[in-house]
TrEMBL record:
Compositional bias (Basic residues): 81-90
Domain DUF6444, chain residue ranges per copy: 35-102
Pfam families: DDE_Tnp_IS66 (PF03050), DUF6444 (PF20042)
Annotated source species: Methanococcoides burtonii (strain DSM 6242 / NBRC 107633 / OCM 468 / ACE-M)
Protein name: Transposase
Length: 389
């Protein structure tokens, strides 16, 4: 302290110019340090956001997101069991010179049985007619469920699309996920009813009514509640469940919801949206970069509830519309099992044929028709066609 004081006094004795030079130098040092502090503050904010996103990813599971239960590796993870057997030092599997018991082919078999195929072309044609008839029925249906999932064909990631009701199923493999594939499927371009989906934006290119899967929304609301601790997401979660309970009770009595009850739920919905806007104010642009300012996950979800209120609550106004899109997801499940077993289709033609056969079997099972009898009828050129009531 004394040394600094002596240095300052020495400068003071040198005259005003020396003092001005010293103060100017100090101002420059302070300005540079302030600039470094501001840069560090920006960097700290960026790193905090990055850490938050990474923590959110770790917290995601099948309960609060669309991830399957098989990915819940951080929930109640059990320790791996350890074997008490001592290592032998040998390689796993059959050892060298092991005789084995494999059934080998012989040059001269005892018996040869030839299975001739007689009905393949007729069967394929009959299922083509069945598929077109199912598409026509789906186009005329008041409500259909649609979904899409990844499928490997010729070693590449492609897409399987499904459109279904509780009586019919139609699958369509395609290279694309969006409207190009939906147009090729030939259902949505001519559909005028209500399509239930998971908020994939390509569905909104079609001029029909839309209903968003609320099961997905509930998981996203749970994620926002857990990661951001927001009141509006918790309240909206309760509201959707209460509306579903009321709708289920009305369905059991074959009635319809009273207008005053609908208004009560919609007013509650509006109040929750108001709370959400207060918790998620509009962000101001921090730079001159073109495009929209990046928003938080909570704000994006809130905007969806603001902009798509009618599609979210459509199941309350129209009791034929389901609360969620589980029907289409259940229809996709068996196709995913096939992919786990085979891994990939070797050709698009093979994927198309398999999808057509699975469409037939799924439709048959939904109508409580014996599958083997339906297959025999299809081979005979008389496939099962559901009756539309």
């Amino acid at each position: 302290m004394n040394t600094k004081r002596k240095e300052i006094l020495a400068v003071y004795e040198q005259g005003p110019e020396a003092v001005v030079t010293l103060v100017t130098t100090l101002y420059d040092i302070i300005a540079e340090q302030q600039r470094i502090i501001e840069l560090q503050a920006v960097r700290i904010t960026e790193l905090e956001e990055r850490v938050k996103k990474l923590e959110e990813q770790l917290k995601k599971n099948s309960r609060n997101s669309s991830k399957p239960p098989s990915t819940d590796v951080f929930i109640n993870e059990k320790p791996k069991t350890k074997s008490r057997r001592k290592k032998s030092g040998k390689k796993p599997g059959g050892q060298k010179d092991h005789p084995g018991t494999t059934l080998r082919m012989v040059d001269v078999p005892d018996e040869v049985i030839i299975h001739k195929v007689h009905k393949c072309s007729n069967c394929e044609r009959s299922l083509e007619d069945f598929e077109q008839q199912i598409k026509n029925f789906l186009i005329e249906s008041p409500v259909i469920n649609c979904d899409e999932t990844g499928m490997r064909i010729e070693g590449k990631r492609q897409w399987l699309h499904v459109a279904s009701t509780n009586k019919m199923t139609c699958y369509c493999p395609h290279q694309k996920r969006g409207s190009e594939a939906m147009n090729a499927m030939g259902i949505l371009p001519n559909f005028n009813g209500t399509v239930v989906h998971d908020f994939w934006k390509s569905y909104y290119k079609y001029d029909c009514d839309h209903s968003i899967c609320n099961a997905h929304l509930l998981r996203e609301l749970t994620s926002v509640s857990e990661n951001d601790d927001q009141l509006w997401s918790k309240a909206m979660n309760i509201l959707l469940i209460d509306v579903k309970k009321s709708v289920d009770q009305i369905r059991e009595m074959s009635g319809c919801m009273k207008p005053e009850r609908i208004k009560e739920f919609e007013d509650w919905y509006g109040q929750i949206i108001h709370i959400g806007i207060e918790e998620n104010p509009q962000l101001q642009a921090k730079s001159k970069k073109r495009g929209r300012t990046k928003q938080t996950t909570a704000k994006n979800l809130l905007d969806r509830f603001i902009g798509y209120k009618n599609d979210i609550l459509r199941f309350m106004h129209d009791l034929k519309v389901p609360f969620e899109n589980n029907l289409a997801e259940r229809d996709v499940r068996m196709m995913k099992v096939q992919q786990k077993i085979s891994g990939t289709f070797r050709s698009m033609q093979g994927a198309l044929i398999f999808s057509r056969v699975r469409s037939y079997i799924s439709t048959v099972k939904k109508n409580q028709v014996p599958v083997m009898d339906a297959i025999r009828n299809a081979i005979a050129g008389m496939p099962f066609i559901p009756t539309i009531v």
